[in-house]
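Supplementary Methods. Inverse-folding protocol.

Structures were first reduced to a discrete structure-token string of length 326. This string, shown here, constituted the complete conditioning input.
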């Protein structure tokens, strides 16, 4: 009888080094995928072009109660009485992508979707990325349900490991997840992100040594990136009206200084940090740019993005990091 035991003992198994060893990732998955924070050098992002379904929004869709234009089939809304300027939307999105490339960042584009997916340019939401890969989420509103499959295929085709998928009645969106440091993340529960989503996220994060803090968001704020932006390991831009006081104290206890966003420039918290104290920010937010540059030594990269904000999200919403240095 042939003794196979000696062969298998000689050839493996080799559980060490573990999956997150950077040489293991590079050798077996082609690249060191994922991100351990929100501020280290950004290498690759996921984006999607604006969906032409936005053009269906007209002035007569204005709803005075909700102060927005709402499509009759509930597939989109627009925060302005004037209809979308499609040419301007395309120009601003392409300019943003070009700016990222000029920063040395790879832009991975997800494919177009049917015209009912009017929010699909906001690639932040269907997933989160952590050291080693992506966790696929489950979007809350019916008008966005289904983006998850397209996003999963796109990142998998790029070579990125899929570390997990939310199931059951969990709902969670990437805009409400923020990595505060390599071993600590925050998840904002809200009308769009529930505690079951937090529970399942916590399960996936435990295996990579990342603790999750659940942050109940006030009112109808849907995502935590509507309340804060990490700018450096020890600096965050916040809108304190959109965050619980106990969470602001948690930031301070973790050595993170908070800077209040200037009045009238709330969208600045939805900017994108490309490296420590280097931030892409909307050019229509000069008070924030001046504050960060003059008082905190932040390098500002301005882009035009005011028209796209009327669709309900800005620069941070429009990108998901696939790779940051970690």
């Amino acid at each position: 009888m042939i003794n196979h035991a000696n062969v298998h003992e000689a050839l493996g198994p080799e559980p060490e080094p573990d999956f997150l060893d950077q040489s293991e990732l590079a050798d077996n998955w082609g690249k060191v995928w994922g991100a351990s924070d929100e501020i280290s050098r950004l290498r690759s992002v996921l984006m999607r072009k604006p969906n032409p379904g936005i053009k269906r929004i007209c002035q007569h869709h204005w709803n005075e109660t909700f102060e927005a234009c709402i499509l009759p089939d509930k597939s989109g809304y627009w925060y302005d009485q004037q209809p979308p300027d499609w040419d301007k939307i395309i120009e601003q999105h392409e300019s943003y992508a070009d700016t990222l490339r000029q920063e040395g960042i790879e832009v991975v584009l997800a494919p177009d979707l049917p015209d009912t997916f009017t929010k699909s340019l906001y690639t932040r939401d269907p997933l989160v990325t952590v050291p080693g890969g992506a966790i696929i989420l489950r979007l809350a509103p019916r008008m966005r349900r289904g983006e998850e499959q397209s996003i999963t295929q796109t990142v998998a085709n790029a070579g990125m490991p899929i570390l997990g998928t939310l199931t059951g009645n969990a709902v969670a969106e990437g805009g409400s997840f923020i990595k505060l440091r390599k071993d600590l993340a925050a998840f904002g529960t809200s009308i769009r992100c529930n505690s079951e989503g937090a529970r399942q996220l916590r399960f996936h994060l435990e295996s990579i040594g990342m603790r999750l803090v659940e942050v109940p968001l006030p009112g109808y704020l849907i995502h935590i990136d509507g309340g804060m932006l990490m700018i450096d390991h020890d600096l965050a831009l916040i809108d304190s009206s959109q965050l619980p006081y106990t969470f602001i104290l948690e930031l301070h206890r973790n050595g993170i200084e908070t800077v209040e966003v200037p009045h009238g420039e709330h969208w600045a918290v939805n900017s994108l940090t490309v490296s420590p104290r280097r931030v892409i920010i909307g050019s229509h937010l000069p008070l924030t740019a001046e504050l960060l540059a003059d008082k905190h030594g932040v390098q500002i990269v301005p882009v035009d993005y005011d028209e796209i904000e009327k669709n309900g999200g800005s620069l941070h919403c429009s990108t998901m990091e696939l790779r940051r240095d970690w």
